[in-house]
Amino acid sequence: MAETAAPRRGRITPEREAELYAAVLDLLREVGYDSLTMDTVAARTRSSKATLYRQWGGKAELVVRAMRHHKPGSIAHADTGSLQGDFHAVLSHEDDSAMEQTSALMRALDMAMHHNPDLKRAFRELLIEPETDEFSRVLQRAVDRGEIRADNPALEFVVHMLIGAFVARTLIDDRPPTQAFLRSYLDAVVLPALRVCPAPSPGPQQ
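Now predict its structure.
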């Protein structure tokens, strides 16, 4: 795995960093990844391009870190005492409107990654791998509690199942994923695959 430079953020405040990330995502929605440049980010945020490069190294890292910053709460911190509770707690952090925006950004980046190896590498190192590590810790807690057998073969595919549901919702149903859809999918597919008996979830699927 290629090394990713450590963040270099000593000269800007967290508030300014959040403002920059929001502007980057707005630009990404407006013009797409290929047309987004460090010049346009600098102009939109009234920043020095040299500062942007010093802090983030390049466009790929800046975009992916902006995506990660606006990701809802970490699943690793959602310790409710049950696997179903942990999954549902994370879903509650992002409403349907925000989920629709995330889905649109992910589709745009997926196409861009086919032609931009630096984006694909940054996406894997800064978003996918940390996310996979978080899920591994949550699943290990469930194993330690006795909810899941350590030798359950579905453990290896939980992240694949969740990403697949998120992506396929738009491709198959022509609708963005929603909280209700993902809760239903978790309870009907992911938890049974792990041989966890889910408690009934309130509310119809949307």
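Confidence is low (pLDDT under 50) at residues 1-7.
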